[in-house]
Amino acid sequence: MTNPMSSGSDPVIRVEGLVKHFGDVVALDGIDLQVERGTVFGLLGPNGAGKTTAVRILTTILSADAGHATVLGIDVARDPQAVRERIGLAGQYAAVDENLTGRENLRLIGQLTHLPKSTYVPRADQLLEQFGLTHAADRPARTYSGGMRRRLDLGAALVHRPPVLFLDEPTTGLDPASRNDLWVVIQELVADGTTVLLTTQYLEEADRLADLIAVIDGGKKIAQGTAPELKATMGATIVEITMATPEAAVQARGRLQPVGVVEADYDGRTLRVNIGEGARGVLDVARVLEEADLVPDAFTVREPTLDDVFLQLTGHRTDEPGDHPTPDPGDHPTPDAGPDVPATSEEGAA
After folding, report:
1. pTM of the model
2. Looking at the structure, do residues 197 and 107 belong to the same domain, yes or no?
3. Deepest of 21, 43, 210, 342, by most Cβ within 10 A of its Cβ?
4. Structural domains counted in the chain
């Protein structure tokens, strides 16, 4: 990944005080963002955090109630058509015509974006090869698996070679292998100079892809930094302890408070102790438990993850809605975004 501060030019995407309401619900509450050229900017948050709303405003699908946003220096509210001509968008669910073949879908996008036939025909073939779809190029998209549809959808967003690409939870519903394949493609795009704004609720995805991460929850930006910077806020080490019963966990939590920041997991039996003294802190945790005659079922020492950061910041995990989830359009999975399984028996033979 590139250094997010390496570019001296103006930000490719600039968001200032963006606000959006859906009735009485505040979907975005004055967020500020800056995305530098040739980087991946990750918007990390749970379902209903406001991620999709932000993307839809930046891609001119929705209008903001207040605030200001530009893409490539173009005001998204004043000149939406100019913005659309310069961006690509792949939403949470593949927006392809199921009755057209993969090749026909990509060529149609070329026609709709007013590319000459001499450009979009070879471009479609190039993208089919790049995304591993050449073998299925002349089959209807309805016969594609979930992963194939996602790759075709991403290819469609790239037909006109946009310098800025918006990916709204692009790996939703994919199996681990297909998700990893898509990550490789995104990294290759950025290496070629594309700027990417990525929304995700997958901690591993943000950790692997994003140069800079903004954590949003309830429509507000609550933290921002690189993955190492965010992890550093947790301290040096996490000791994870699983007790036999919730009652034992309550006792252990009380005893361990002087040692470090103690958080209880949703299962009622697991505790995470955030300590800043490395090996000495680990020994202190073990000593306290021994003195209290509290024997854990499991005792694990590890480095902080983005999951720990998110839980500390919000009090819940990314796969749990916040206290006031916003009605982001498309924020919740539908049957079309299901697991990466064959859509027909034909796919299984491909």
Report:
1. 0.75
2. yes
3. 43
4. 2
